[in-house]
Amino acid sequence: MRKLLNTLYVTSTDAYLARDGENIVVKVDNAERFRIPVHNIEGIVTMGYMGMSPAAMHLCAENKVAVSFVSESGKFLGRVTGPVSGNVLLRRKQYRIADDPEQSLRLSKLFVAGKIANTRTILQRSLRDHSAQLDVELLDSVIAKLSIKQRQALLSKSMDELRGYEGEAAMEYFSVFNQLILHQKSSFRMEGRNRRPPLDNVNALLSFIYVLLMHEVRAALESVGLDPCVGFLHVDRPGRQSLALDMMEEFRPFIADRLVLNLINRNQINGSGFVKQPAGGIIMDENTRKEVITAWQKRKQEEILHPFLEEKVEIGLLPYVQALLMARHLRGDLDAYPVYIYK
């Protein structure tokens, strides 16, 4: 099993990344703030405006360390990677399946059904742990509706029908997301899911963590030789990481949404760390971003029992495990792709 290495997150907008031998050096105002050997990291996510030296990019590319550039609000801007590797036969099989509407629909139904199942579990666990603080009747109603949407998704006859069920399920889930926020309700409340830009503190958190998750999923797909840009559920579009977006669906509730709720309910962050921009969007200040990233790194180190492998794996390795299983399925070693279902 692959070793879980570190991802370097650079949150200062004034940071510049440089190379010193085999080390990545973070500088602010030309003064060194941090350094790390390149072989100790597997990825870099930088929110700095100052950039990165060509020598540092070269070092990362040589060592298969992917570098993602993200805006202050968490919007993905671009990515630098080394030469494409992997089995060309696997990628060609991936492309053939992506061009086959029937096979694409079959895989897409698994992604959507897995996502809906995991959102339902989030609500069920909240009811189990905090029923005295929740509207039990309301959540029971939404859980029942999600069960129906999951079955409908698996029986979909077309991609448009499937996307319709996915949208309806997401609307139901996020309509009660405020119920799961037990503390700091005056600072953290969402009126539905919104993005580009996020218009409230909860959506700002969700969007930011989804970007971190995207970095992990894309790197995992590339590491097993799959093309993260060619997916089955999400439509191909220049610059769009369609397969990474497909695979993210099963992880969003368990990895990202739960982390958002924990950060708020455990008072690890507060409303003063969010800033409204002139255009109306919400961003986090630097200290809040650091707190979120620290919690994200700790979350990745937690262990779970993988339901298909029946082995303990770190949460940070879940994207890699699922990418391996996807590759095995596309090669014909597995009859079906075992989507990750949170228990």
Low-confidence stretches: none
The number of domains: 2
With strands numbered from the N-terminus, the spatial order across the biggest sheet is: 1-5-7-8
Number of strands: 12
What's this entry about, in short?
By secondary structure, this protein is of the alpha/beta class.
Polypeptide structure, described:
The protein has 343 residues and is an alpha/beta fold. The chain has 2 domains: 6-80, Ribosomal Protein L15, Chain: K, domain 2, CATH 3.100.10.20; 88-331, Four Helix Bundle (Hemerythrin (Met), subunit A), CATH 1.20.120. The chain has 9 helices and 12 strands. The protein has helices at residues 54-62, 88-98, 101-130, 136-154, 159-175, 201-223, 242-265, 286-301, 318-331, and strands at residues 6-10, 15-20, 23-28, 31-37, 41-46, 51-52, 66-70, 76-80, 274-276, 282-284, 303-305, 312-314. A 4-stranded mixed β-sheet has the order 1-5-7-8, sandwiched between helices. Strands 4-3-2-6 form a 4-stranded mixed β-sheet. It has a two-stranded antiparallel sheet with strand order 9-10. The protein is globular, with a radius of gyration of 20 Å.
List keywords for this structure.
9 helices; 2 domains; Ribosomal Protein L15, Chain: K, domain 2; 4-stranded mixed sheet; single chain; 48% helix; alpha/beta; Four Helix Bundle (Hemerythrin (Met), subunit A); 343 residues
Topology:
Blueprint: E1 6-10, E2 15-20, E3 23-28, E4 31-37, E5 41-46, E6 51-52, H1 54-62, E7 66-70, E8 76-80, H2 88-98, H3 101-130, H4 136-154, H5 159-175, H6 201-223, H7 242-265, E9 274-276, E10 282-284, H8 286-301, E11 303-305, E12 312-314, H9 318-331
Helix pairs in contact: 3-4, 3-5, 3-7, 4-5, 6-7, 6-9
